[in-house]
Amino acid sequence: MATGEAVPPAHRRYRRPMARRQYHQFCPVAKALDLLGERWTLLVVRELTTGPKRYSELRRALTGMASNLLAVRLDQLVEAGYVERLEDDPPGRHHRYALTTRGRALREVLAALTRHGIHRLGLPDDDEPLLTHLLPESLAAMIRPEELDDGPLTIRFALDETDTTLEIAPAGPPGRRRPALDRITPHVARATLGDGPPRPAPGAPSLPPADVTVRGSIAAVLWVRRGDMSLDDAVAAGLLELTGSRDAVEKVANLYSPEPPSAYEVASPGARGGSGTSAGDTAA
Predict the structure, then answer these.
(1) Neighbour-count burial of 72, counting CB atoms closer than 10 A to its CB (0-12 exposed, 13-18 middle, 19+ buried)
(2) 68-108 pLDDT, tens digit each
(3) Phi, psi dihedral angles at 234 (to 5 degrees)
(4) 140 and which of 159, 172, 188, 264 could share a cystine (Cβ 3.0–4.6 Å)?
């Protein structure tokens, strides 16, 4: 293989331009969707939110995506300025792909889609692996921004076989806050994922001790967040355990509480969601 090549040569011959559907509307939403609404495009961006990836790493993560289509989508994202090829890799290694400043701004789009998508999650099919490497991004996105206050808060989630910490930082005075684009979301400054108590990366500031530790299952957090089960019921059933001061635990409970139901949902019991699978269904 040629030194520094971004995509294995076996796939280069398939990188023909693909016909792209366009909305042909003079509207910024339509123009964005002309690119970002293409199948698999936002999932490529999703994988790059956790850090730079090589082509082979993206192929492994995006199961079901044809290799030639991945090459095309990467080319489109690079051309549009959302993704860049890193040039500082050692000789003989394939380039890594990373989000640019413009690409990192799409984290807010993915966070909004996460808050909508949790209501469509049922039980995974046999061919749908659990993407635990994306758990920090998902837990950060599931926070209800309107429930945040100006105080810092650090939450540790020990869920199933994962250990995730979110550091929620106040905005701070102008010029002293971390830029939103360097955050997981505009409100969450840092997130870590490991198999034990979190440790910051070398050279990074130490993580503050957790104000609240949440132990239990990923599914239980999801059920509570979307309103399938109350937090009190999840705790009483032994599905979740929250430790910390009363005020801090109450903050976390509010951050991961379900949105108030719409008038339609109030009038039509069972209309909320869309997955057809709830905590009760699973328990049965």
Answers:
(1) buried
(2) 999 999 999 999 999 999 987 666 667 899 999 999 999 99
(3) -65, -40
(4) 188
The pTM of the whole model exceeds 0.85 = no
Q: Which residues contact 201 (CB under 8 A, 6 or more apart)?
A: none
Instruction: Report the C-alpha gap between 156 and 215 in whole angstroms.
Output: 8
CATH T-level topology, domain 9-105: Arc Repressor Mutant, subunit A (1.10.10)
Q: How far apart are CA 134 and CA 268, in angstroms?
A: 33
241 contacts 232 by C-beta, under 8 angstroms = no
Q: In this predicted model, what pLDDT tens digit does every residue of 207-243 receive, in sequence order?
A: 678 999 999 999 999 999 999 999 999 999 999 999 9
- Distances in whole angstroms, Cα of residue 7 to Cα of each of 43, 56, 81, 161, 171: 18, 9, 18, 34, 40
Report the b/e string of 213-233 with b at 16+ CB within 10 A. bbbbebbbbbbbbbbbbebee
Kindly list the domain boundaries of the chain, sorted by start residue: 9-105, 123-283
Distance CA 252, CA 152 (A): 12
Q: What are phi and psi of 130, to 5 degrees?
A: -75, 125
Residue 207's SS3 state is coil
Please choose, from the candidates 110, 105, 97, the residue with its C-alpha nearest in 3D space to the C-alpha of residue 54: 97
Write out the CATH class of domain 123-283: alpha beta
Q: How far apart are the C-alpha atoms of 198 and 156, rounded to whole Å?
A: 9
For residue 182, what are the contacts with CB-CB under 8 A and spacing of at least 6?
Answer: 104
Distance between CA atoms of residues 233 and 139, nearest Å: 20
Lookup: tokens for 216: 């239990």
